[in-house]
Specification:
The protein is an alpha/beta fold and 293 residues long. Helices cover 43% and strands 19% of the residues. It has 13 helices and twelve strands. Strands 3-4-5-8-9-10-11-12 form an eight-stranded parallel beta barrel, surrounded by five helices. The chain is globular, with a radius of gyration of 18 Å.
Length: 293
């Protein structure tokens, strides 16, 4: 299987392995330096999709993660530099209040969140703006309608949805074009086949958040899929790289958003975009996963 290295997202071609910043801000870091260096290294290594959110922030600070992303992109260069080459996705409708994470996806809240993110990122338009979570108190069509308005007004280039089912995606599609869906899934908890098929049919990018969730510590990987261990040894790469490549093998519209915090982890993740798993290897890993749901 020759992997497709890039993924169509929001009218752009991006590396199928993107970088998410949630971990940089969930706790209270004493020093942003390592995260800033990692993001710069990722971009230099060819990562062109960066994922942030209003909710990715430290206790008592507004927009910690979005500010960090802006600093790095500004430092790497404006104009024809990183600010134009990197697709920046952020999310609204979900926020941190002390140690609590709350949802408010009302149209007014989404509009306020979007404008706040525009200011923090230093942009006139957000490349890709996600509804972070459906709000059980707000009809999804109302939230989707607010995103449609933001897109119509040019404040966002494209709309995405996070943490949605296939039925919720269908409901939103009646209101607004959806460019991407980002859900937590991994080899340990693969996406629903219905969602994979639906996003493919509509040309929607399907992105895995926490793409290595449930497969640590390392010994868990071998129990989950001995075939993944064999493929890793055959290709001379770490087992997590194989598991990311297996996810990418679910369809050309599938990507992963790594939460790497160390350069070595980042490098191993980026390798997945070019790893040519054979069909037999992919099938063997799939068979293993079906035996260990």
């Amino acid at each position: 299987m020759t992997p497709r290295r890039t993924l169509a997202v929001a009218g752009r071609e991006v590396l199928r392995v993107g970088l998410g910043g949630a971990r940089w801000s969930i706790t209270d870091p004493a020093d942003d330096g390592p995260a800033e260096r990692l993001l710069a290294q990722a971009i230099e290594a060819g990562v062109t999709y960066v994922d942030t959110a209003r909710a990715y922030t430290t206790r008592g600070v507004e927009g910690h993660n979005e500010r960090l992303v802006r600093r790095v992109l500004d430092r790497l260069g404006a104009g024809a530099g990183a600010r134009d080459e990197v697709l920046v996705a952020t999310k609204g409708g979900h926020f941190r209040d002390g140690d609590r994470y709350l949802v408010d996806a009302s149209p007014a809240a989404l509009r306020a969140d979007c404008r706040r993110s525009l200011g923090l990122l230093g942009r006139e338009r957000i490349d890709l703006y996600y509804l972070h979570f459906p709000d059980p108190r707000v009809p999804l069509t109302d939230s989707a309608g607010a995103l449609a308005d933001l897109r119509r007004e040019g404040l966002v280039g494209a709309v995405g949805l996070c943490n949605v089912t296939a039925d919720q995606l269908r409901e939103a599609l009646d209101v607004v074009p959806v460019a991407a869906v980002q859900n937590p899934f991994s080899a340990a908890a693969p996406p629903a086949p219905e969602l994979v098929a639906l996003t493919a049919a509509h040309g929607i990018a399907l992105l895995a958040a926490s793409p290595l969730g449930g497969v640590r510590p390392p010994g868990a990987v071998e129990r989950l899929s001995p075939a993944a261990g064999r493929a890793a040894r055959a290709h001379g790469v770490p087992v997590p790289t194989v598991l990311l490549a297996w996810l990418l093998g679910l369809g050309d519209h599938v990507g992963v958003v790594t939460g790497a915090r160390r350069p070595a982890t980042l490098a191993a993740s980026v390798l997945a975009a070019d790893l040519p798993l054979t069909r037999a290897e992919h099938r063997a890993i799939t068979d293993d996963l079906q035996e260990h749901p």
